[in-house]
Specification:
Elements: H1 10-29, H2 34-51, H3 62-86, H4 93-125, E1 130-135, H5 139-150, E2 156-162, E3 170-172, H6 174-183, E4 188-192, H7 198-210, E5 214-218, E6 229-234, E7 237-242, H8 250-286, E8 292-298, E9 304-310, H9 333-340, H10 348-353, E10 358-360, H11 367-373, E11 389-391, H12 393-396, H13 406-421, H14 425-441
Enzyme class: transferase
Protein name: Undecaprenyl-phosphate glucose phosphotransferase
Domain Bacterial sugar transferase: 256-439
Length: 447
């Protein structure tokens, strides 16, 4: 018989381990009094519900899990500050900072290990699997099938397609799927909305409820279902709305802004402070013109701002319309080096400090490109819901360089929209690390 659930004791055991970690670190850095530790543990438990930090599933990615724990840890520290202020008990700021750093490191390392252990456990033992079928065959369902087949670490076992279409790779018709699900003890049923009538959808809902099967619907390729949706209830009436992007949350916005300020100050003080005079001399010796290149770009909320770079070209009238290309005659010798190593982008950390840009975000495009594509590509303007970045998810995913055809821009927009809708500080850090790695390896499109 197929079994698809974790042991009922695993999740409570994880809660207990987390609480032991929180109480132990509280004992070491904050207080040895049982009441204080009990209050801090209570804060953690309450935040766990509010932040939904334990509402994770086998398909939840690691970045999302770590982002939730990071948010919860920050909120916990704020509550700890407030608690000790109210009871007028002095705790050195250094201890609270050490509490925060230690808790963040220990919890995240523990969760990463757990995440990897479960993945390896499923692959090695072949247990803890969920057996699934897909109702309907189209591009969306075939993509899902590929995920099930090529990602065994998530513990899904694909048992076949069911469709009324005349195709060779199906197990049977939609009607025949009901017996198959019962006889093979299928755990989850994935239905394509595109291929089912309202009556069929209702039949699957009733069938899965009666037989205690998990039913999920696959968004088709219509525009509505490709968006990030949220289900709310007005009294008992279900209403679907576009979900707010993460950075609409003031707390998350401030977290990103604080990170930007700290990171930009570090780069400005430790790198730009000494590299600027050296590059200024080299740029001036090779060609006439200013050290810095300034160009208007569109930023957050479609506001214009002056984007700064070290000048890498001879002054020309085409810079606002024509991107640099490989072996571009306009590029100076110094310019080729600083473009290849991305050093020309470093002055943008001043843009970050001034609040016009972020360290990570959709790259600001030439204004001519934005004007050309904003009405041509779906969801293009989503890029401007957040501040543009010095680096971005599209750039570290292989979509850097010239826009030579519409598909180049479509790929960038796809990654940019994903970033906007799924932002987390952990994702930002991951992109920064990947950017540094790519620069050290050398990028083919960096010219």
């Amino acid at each position: 018989m197929h079994t698809g659930r974790h042991s009922k004791y695993i999740r409570p055991l994880l809660y207990i381990i987390d609480l032991l970690i929180v109480s132990s670190i509280s004992y070491v850095f904050l207080s040895k009094h049982i009441i204080d530790i009990g209050v801090i543990v209570s804060f953690w438990m309450i935040l766990s519900v509010l932040v939904s930090v334990y509402a994770v599933y086998r398909f939840t990615n690691l970045v999302k899990i770590l982002s939730l724990f990071f948010t919860q840890t920050i909120l916990l520290v704020l509550l700890v500050f407030t608690y000790y202020y109210i009871i007028e008990k002095f705790i050195p700021t250094k201890n609270i900072i050490l509490f925060f750093i230690t808790l963040l490191l220990v919890i995240n390392v523990w969760r990463i290990l757990l995440f990897e252990i479960f993945k390896k456990y499923r692959i090695i033992t072949g247990s803890n699997n969920k057996y699934v079928v897909i109702i309907g065959v189209n591009k969306s369902t075939i993509k899902l099938e590929q995920f099930f087949k090529h990602s065994p670490e998530y513990g899904y076992r694909f048992e076949g397609f069911f469709s009324d279409k005349e195709i060779s790779n199906k197990k049977g018709t939609i009607e025949e799927s009901f017996n198959f699900i019962i006889e093979n003890n299928i755990n989850e049923v994935y239905c394509s909305i595109k291929e089912l009538s309202n009556d069929q959808i209702k039949k699957f809902i009733d069938f899965c409820e009666i037989n205690m099967k998990i039913l999920k619907f696959i968004a088709d390729d219509k525009e509505l279902f490709s968006k990030n949706l949220q289900l709310d209830y007005y009294d008992l009436s279900p209403v679907i709305s576009l979900r707010k992007i993460p950075l609409d949350d003031p707390l998350k916005g401030w977290i990103k802004r604080i990170f930007d300020i700290v990171f930009s100050l570090v780069v400005i003080c430790l790198v730009l402070s000494w590299i600027t005079p050296i590059l200024a001399l080299l740029i001036k010796l090779e060609s006439k013109g200013p050290v810095f290149f300034r160009q208007y770009r569109y930023g957050a909320d479609f506001n214009k701002f002056l984007c700064y770079k070290f000048r890498s070209m001879n002054p020309n009238k085409e810079s606002d319309r024509v991107q640099a290309s490989k072996n571009d005659a306009r590029t100076t010798k110094v310019g080729r080096f600083i473009r290849r190593t991305s050093i020309d982008e470093l002055p943008q950390f001043f843009n970050v400090l001034f609040g016009e840009m972020s360290v990570v975000g959709p790259r600001p495009l030439l204004m001519s490109h934005t004007d050309d594509y904003k009405d041509k590509i779906n969801r293009f303007m989503m890029r401007h819901n957040v501040k543009p970045g010095i680096t971005g998810l599209a750039q570290v995913s292989g979509h850097r360089g010239n826009i030579e055809k519409d598909s180049d821009m479509q790929n960038r927009v796809r990654y940019d929209v994903f970033y906007v809708e799924n932002w987390s500080l952990i994702l930002d850090i991951k992109i920064i690390i990947k950017t540094i790695f790519n620069i050290s390896q050398g990028e083919e499109k960096a010219y």
